[in-house]
TrEMBL record:
Chain residues that bind Zn(2+) 2: 100, 130
UniProt GO molecular function: aldehyde-lyase activity; zinc ion binding
Stored NCBIfam families: cbbA (TIGR00167)
A biological process term (GO) from this entry: carbohydrate metabolic process
Pfam family, one: F_bP_aldolase
Protein's organism: Vagococcus vulneris
UniProt cross-references to InterPro entries, sorted A to Z: Aldolase_TIM, Class_II_FBP_aldolase, FBA_II
Binding sites annotated in the UniProt record for dihydroxyacetone phosphate: 175, 203-205, 224-227
Protein name per its UniProtKB record: Fructose-bisphosphate aldolase
Catalytic residues identified in the record: 78 (proton donor)
Lineage: Bacteria, Bacillati, Bacillota, Bacilli, Lactobacillales
Length: 293
């Protein structure tokens, strides 16, 4: 069932585990998430970016919600940018929205986030905001330190905005890291000690299993994942294709009966979804969210 995100995260905080929040963008990835969650009895958060189709993804998620009503799932708008996107997500039936004003001034971040909180809470929907700024991994050496969340701002931000969970910048980054991911665990400890609301880690991919396991021990409840999952899907596609997408014929299979030896799109999507799902399940187990329902 699709439920407000703060309910999933409150349970995670109580149980000291992390919930995987994969980016989804089509039927295959949404189905893979439901299947992974069902197989491992893990809660899951579907993160949808505005560019990937707010209404489309909401409808697909509701289709799988009806098929697998036992799966506890939150549908969250990832990095909500334009005001219209955020309102559309609420209208489309999302159970959570992120408003990302992490590159605005503290005052503007507070002001615009508070406005969304007022609307979302009136509809029973959770809000995630970001304080500090999680940058892009290709410029990690330039942005890692400048974006770190400042603990002296955090309590004030939460009091003023009343958000349900907070994305913090503690050294991770989006995409493929240039160099090695360095997480500031003392900073995370300071934030976790003073913040009651669940904490969100963006840029989980490529951060390393040991780092991610530790961030959960140190107070993270939601881990956003994209790059590692889609790379795993692409690896699966690549491994199953020869040049020019000819099917690699399994031993003992007589291909003469087929009209074509070329891989078709359906097979490619299915292979991609398999790789995506496998990596997602790896992370669900790493975050100790399996067996929670
Ligand atoms: Zn992010």
């Amino acid at each position: 069932m699709i439920i407000p995100m703060h309910e999933l995260l409150k349970e995670a905080k109580k149980g000291k585990y992390g919930v995987a929040a994969p980016n989804v963008f089509n039927r295959e990835t949404i189905e893979a998430c439901f299947l992974a969650a069902k197989e491992l009895r893990a809660p899951i958060i579907l993160d949808v970016a505005g560019v990937h189709g707010i209404y489309e993804c909401a409808d697909i998620a509701r289709f799988y919600e009806r098929r697998y009503p036992e799966v506890p799932v939150a549908l969250n708008l990832d990095h909500g940018g334009p005001y219209e996107d955020i309102v559309n997500a609420i209208h489309a039936g999302f159970s959570s929205v992120m408003i990302d004003r992490s590159q605005s001034s503290f005052e503007d971040n507070v002001k615009e986030t508070s406005e969304i909180v007022k609307i979302a809470h009136a509809c029973g929907i959770s809000v995630e905001a970001e304080l500090g700024h999680v940058g892009q991994a290709y410029e990690y050496d330039k942005t890692r330190d400048s974006g770190l969340t400042r603990p002296e701002e955090a309590s004030d931000f939460l009091k003023q905005t009343q958000v349900d969970c907070l994305a913090v910048a503690v050294g991770t980054s989006h995409g493929v890291y240039q160099g090695e991911c360095k997480i500031d665990f003392p900073l995370l400890d300071t934030l976790a000690a003073q913040i009651e609301q669940p904490l969100v880690l963006h840029g989980g991919s490529g951060s390393g299993d040991e780092n991610l396991r530790k961030t959960i021990e140190h107070g993270i409840q939601k881990v956003n994942l994209n790059t590692d999952l889609v790379m795993s899907g692409l690896d699966r596609i690549q491994a199953s294709c020869k040049n020019n997408f000819e099917i690699k014929v399994p031993a003992g299979v007589n291909m003469d009966e087929f009209t074509t030896k070329r891989m078709n799109m359906q097979q490619l999507y299915a292979l991609g979804a398999d790789g995506y799902k496998e990596k997602l399940m790896h992370y669900m187990k790493l975050f100790k969210s399996n067996g929670r329902w």
